Amino acid sequence: MSPKDIARCVELEQVLFPDDDPWTEVSFRSELAGPHNRYLVARTETGRTVGYCGVALLGTDAHPEAEIHTIGVDPACHRAGIGTLLLLAMLAAAGERGGPVFLEVRTDNAAAIAMYERHGFHIIGLRKNYYQPSGADAYTMRRPALTGSIVSEVLA
C-alpha cells in the first residue's frame, strides 16, 4: 500500500464498516508510517484496488509476535479468494520473524472466523463492546507460532 491507495481504502472502509468508525485518511497514513507495520492492497488486472490488509510485526527478536490490524475486501469481490490471499501475505510476513499471530474479529462475522480457523487461528477470548460505536463484540483469535516445514509451506 502506498499513499496513493489511501482514498480507495477509505472508500472501502465506509462500505465495509459503516457502523464501526471506519478508518479515515489520517488513520491509514498513521498506520503506513508505523515502522513495524506492513500494508498491502489487492488490485484487479485494470489496477482497481479491491482489497487491503495490514499487520504489525511486534515484540523482540527473541519473542516476536504479530497482530493483524485489518483486512477489507470490496463486497463485489467477496468469495473470490482475495481475503485469503491477503491473509496469507500477512502470515508470510509474520512467519519470517516467527511467533504467534493475533487478531480481533466481530463475533457475527462467520465467514471471516471460518477463514481464520482454516489457517490455524483459534478463539482465545471475547472482547465485549469492542467495536464502536455499534457496541459489537469481538473474538480475539490466535495462531500459534509456526516452525520448520510449516513455515516453508506458508511462505511458499
TrEMBL record:
One of its GO terms (molecular function) is N-acetyltransferase activity. The keyword Lipid biosynthesis does not apply. SUPFAM superfamilies: Acyl-CoA N-acyltransferases (Nat). Coiled coil: none annotated. The keyword Acyltransferase applies. Residues 1-146 form the N-acetyltransferase domain. This is Ribosomal-protein-alanine N-acetyltransferase. It comes from Nocardia stercoris. The lineage of its organism: Bacteria, Bacillati, Actinomycetota, Actinomycetes, Mycobacteriales.
